[in-house]
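Worked example

This section walks through a single chain of length 265. The input is the sequence exactly as stored; nothing has been trimmed or padded.
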Amino acid sequence: MGKILKTRIMGILNVTPDSFSDGGLYRNLPEAVSQAEKMVEAGADIIDIGGESTRPGSDPVSLQEEMDRVLPVLERLVSFDVEISLDTTKPELALKALKIGASIINDVSGLQYDTMIAEYVAEYNAKLVIMHMKGIPKTMQNDLGSKDIIEEIKRFFEKQTRVALERGVKKNNIILDPGIGFGKSLEDNIRILRELELFLDMGFPILIGASRKSMIGAICDAKVDERLPGSLAIACVAAQRNVNIIRVHDVAETVQALKIIESIW
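Given that input, the structure is written out below as tokens.
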């Protein structure tokens, strides 16, 4: 069966030593390129390269360190027949990536750290992922819970999409990510997934990234390397709710699960 998915698959390529799930696996250029090739062959539509871990408790890295990690990989991957996304909060790196050929900047700060990213995205007519995160990765899990997480995220999206539009990003180039696990309680994460249509109603594409995350471990008492079934369950729920992009570690397995879901429809 050929690729029929309406939901686009974003494969995660962490070129970091300390990401929560696959830290250290793809730090070398040949390993990173090989993993990207496997994800493309498995059906990924987008490869998302990350050079700075944003797991809970992680420390930021310098601009130079992040550039050294991601730019050689990016230079090799721009010739692939998929979109290339860069997961960064640093505008200087975003600009370099856009010049090389990245077509998406995935900003986990949602333009909270530096709005210049939006200006560079606009200049290159690229896409911008605005993610909701409470606090910073180092401390974001210290003060969990929200009176109304849905309203909080929607207000954030309304504010930050306005910032992006004012800086020239086209509306159809903005993607929203509610930020599963980024400063949210388990109850918050479940509610986000249960009420995804409330974000879709805002009129922008929605990205969900819950692959191997701690909510699966909390619900199922599963270690990181045991969370594929839970990740697939979330991917299927997201696809059924018409989420546009699902960000995953396990591309082949997710593509197969979604092909079954969409074929049954």
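What to look for: The beta strands are 8-14, 46-50, 83-87, 104-107, 127-131, 174-177, 207-208, 245-248.
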